[in-house]
Every structure is written in C-alpha cells, then in structure tokens.
Design a protein that fits this description.
The longest helix has 17 residues, at 89-105. Helix content is 34%, strand content 15%. The protein has helices at residues 19-28, 46-49, 57-61, 89-105, 119-122, 139-149, 201-205, 213-223, 227-239, 264-278, and strands at 75-81, 110-117, 126-128, 135-138, 154-161, 164-166, 176-179, 184-188. With 279 residues, it is α/β, with parallel strands linked by helices. Helix 4 runs antiparallel to helix 9 and helix 9 (227-239) packs antiparallel against helix 10 (264-278). Strand 3 and strand 4 form a beta hairpin. The two termini are 23 Å apart. InterPro entries: Archaemetzincin, MetalloPept_cat_dom_sf, Pept_M54_archaemetzincn. It comes from Pogonophryne albipinna. Keywords: Hydrolase, Metal-binding, Metalloprotease, Protease, Zinc.
C-alpha cells in the first residue's frame, strides 16, 4: 500500500454533507504508518511497463466525469460466465461468498448475483492461445454482452469467469478489462488474483487486499460510509463462518467451511486499524 500525508491542508474544500466523511478519513490516515510503499520487483512489473500519472484525492474529487452511486443506481451486479467447476452446492457457495465479500468491501452498496450464463450465450469471439493452448475470450465482446445485461438500477456490472481473456490479438492475455464510463468490467480467475494493474501472476499475488489510503478516501467520499463500519464488515466476513440460515440464496445448501486462511494477515491488520479508530 502507498503512504500518504494526513495533513488536512491537502484536502480540498468539500460540501458540508461530506464534512464528517472527510474527518473520518483524516483519522484513518493516522494509520498510514501501517502501510508500506509498493515496491518494484522487476522491470516487468506493471508500474514499470505502464507508467501513469498518479491521481490524488483532490483531482479525483473535482473530476466532472467521475461516477457516483445514487438512490436509483446503487447496486453492483455480478454476472458469472461459463463453468466455475463442477456444478453443485459447493460452487454455488463459493460464488455467494464472493458476493458477500464484495458487499463488505464496497460497504454501503448492494451486491447482487445475476443468473449464470454459458459462454455460448455471450456469442463472444474466442481463440486458443498459442503458448498456453487454453481457450480465451475477447474482452471487448464480453463488455458488449454485459451492456445488454446491465439492470436499470445498476451502478455497475462485473462479469467474472474461469476462462482466460485477451483484449486484442497482439496481447498474450489480460486479467480483466473495464469501461469506466459505462460502468462495466470483466475479470478472469483463470490466472488468479486488485487496485493497480498486474503484468504477471507473481505481481498479482503481491497486491494487498485493501486500498491504499488515497483510494480508500476516494471510495469513502463516493459511497459515504464510515471507515470503522466498513472494516467491521470485512472482519465479520473473515471471522464468521456462514451457515445456510445466514444466506437467502443458499438456505438449501450443505454447509462448507469458508476458506479464510489467506485472509489472516489482512484480518490482523483490520483489527489494528479498528483499535486505532476506537481511540
């Protein structure tokens, strides 16, 4: 994660409705000593290969084209595409866990699952990768498909798949692609792995689970949550194992233990954050 200053003079003048939000963020920025800077490990890392100008909070806040959820567009829809393994209760449970985690991560927005679709239903172009020999789907076609599936109350729609993706013939693969202006994106778990781009799997695995303080501030102003409430929701997801009675979509499923081992470092970090916010 990237360190930022907690100096309030760096914050832009914002409407009074956001005053408490900004104060919460400023307090949270006391935690920046717990965030380490992202480091370059090789010339093939995304930062080296795709240098971009950093967007600070003020630039984000004053951007006239930025999208903000509102009362009529406050839902994130997840569209599963293709097979996610053998059909059955465990696969359905994993997808439901993903939905719950997204709802905690984007605290304050509703997250819903759309009915699953097969790859054939998308009518997308595809190819077989000459190196990996794996099937790959063209991301532009998937985004067009998602446009046709986007509900009227959606803030955005995100397609997820276990099939590899490619954005153009000259690229070997891509983890995902999005259209910010249209509120659409697609991501593949085929090569497994957030915020900043990645050029390879090892770089993806180094990415922190949560935002840097600047991006957290951006999300907070856009949605309007209290940081402590969001952290509590994330901790709850990591620590409370779901039972069938807790999920409206999984009431008839057998119970499977939630695989949260990989979240232990993040869980401890969140608890330290909450301790500071309680002071």
């Amino acid at each position: 994660m990237m360190c930022v200053s907690s100096d309030l003079s760096l914050l832009p003048q914002v409407p009074s409705a956001y005053a408490s939000v900004v104060e919460q963020t400023a307090k949270a920025n006391q935690l920046t000593t717990m965030n380490s800077r992202l480091r370059l490990h090789s010339d093939s890392d995304w930062i080296s290969a795709h240098p971009v100008e950093h967007q600070d909070f003020e630039s984000f806040y004053r951007d006239p084209s930025r999208k903000t959820p509102n009362a009529s567009h406050n839902t994130i829809y997840i569209q599963t595409i293709g097979s996610f393994g053998e059909a059955g209760a465990q696969t359905d449970q994993c997808v439901e866990w993903l939905r719950e985690y997204c709802q905690a991560f984007f605290y304050g927005l509703s997250v819903k699952l759309l009915p699953a679709v097969t790859v054939a239903e998308t009518k997308c172009s595809f190819r077989v990768n000459s190196d990996s020999h794996n099937l790959q789907i063209l991301t532009d076609d998937l985004l067009q498909f998602l446009r046709s599936r986007k509900p009227a109350d959606a803030f955005c729609i995100v397609g997820i798949t276990m099939i590899d993706l490619y954005p153009k013939d000259s690229w070997n693969f891509v983890f995902g692609q999005a259209s910010l202006s249209n509120g659409m994106g697609v991501f593949s778990f085929s090569r497994s792995a957030p915020v900043q781009g990645s050029n390879h799997l090892e770089e993806s695995d180094r990415r922190p689970l949560d935002f840097c303080p600047v991006c957290l501030r951006k999300l907070q102003v856009a949605i309007g949550f209290k940081i402590a409430d969001r952290y509590k929701a994330l901790v709850h997801w990591m620590e409370v194992d779901q039972t069938p009675e807790e999920s409206s979509t999984c009431q008839s499923l057998l119970h499977f233990p939630k695989p949260t081992e990989a979240f232990q470092t993040s869980r401890l970090w969140l608890h330290r954050c909450l301790d500071i916010l309680r002071e």
